[in-house]
Design brief:
This protein folds into two domains: 1-87, Orthogonal Bundle (Rna Polymerase Sigma Factor, Chain: A), CATH 1.10.1740; 88-163, Orthogonal Bundle (Arc Repressor Mutant, subunit A). Helix content is 74%, strand content 0%. The chain is built from seven helices and no strands. The chain has helices spanning 3-24, 29-41, 52-77, 94-104, 107-118, 123-130, 134-162. It starts with a helix and ends with a helix.
Length: 163
């Protein structure tokens, strides 16, 4: 790919891809994965790609899944180590509760919800990005929405009982 064309692609889509990965990952690994995505993108002929943004989101999503599989394998190998800290931490407002509720969603459901609800992609675009069937994407989005609404109801109930 020509350097100027790649720089334009990077300027136009880097922020969106990073934001997507940051919403999928709850730690600083998102920026590293975004960089890896764009290193791979350098080798792609984007003249043949119909929707570069969706293509980059798909690359990012695949990279996220690969990273998650690797982390799962590491956790399985070190199962004899100390258990992760699952103690509840105090709530610091609705925004933190929403972030926790989103983080609690299974990865595929979280990705579909973020793509459709937070980033404004259609269900069809989300299906193309994730490689999941359209019906599965719709199901994931509906279930994520219901789960997030339940979390918000619980927060509102807790908020009104505190007053």
């Amino acid at each position: 790919m020509e350097r100027r064309a790649f720089e334009a692609l990077l300027r136009e889509h880097q922020g969106a891809v990073r934001a997507f990965l940051r919403r999928l990952l709850s730690h600083g690994r998102a920026d590293e994965l975004a960089q890896e995505v764009f290193l791979k993108a350098w080798q792609v002929d984007f003249a043949r790609v119909e929707n570069p943004r969706a293509f980059l989101y798909r690359m990012a999503y695949r990279r996220f899944l690969d990273d998650r599989k690797r982390d799962t394998r590491r956790e399985e190998l070190s199962a004899g180590g100390p258990a992760p800290n699952t103690a509840a931490t105090p709530t610091h407002g609705a925004r933190l509760d929403i972030a926790r509720a989103v983080d609690a969603l299974p990865p595929e459901r979280r990705a579909c919800a973020l793509l459709c609800l937070a980033l404004g992609h259609s269900h069809g675009d989300a299906a193309a990005i994730t490689g999941l069937p359209l019906g599965t994407v719709k199901s994931h989005v509906a279930r994520a929405r219901a789960s997030l609404q339940d979390s918000l109801r619980a927060y509102r109930t807790m908020e009104t009982t505190d007053e």
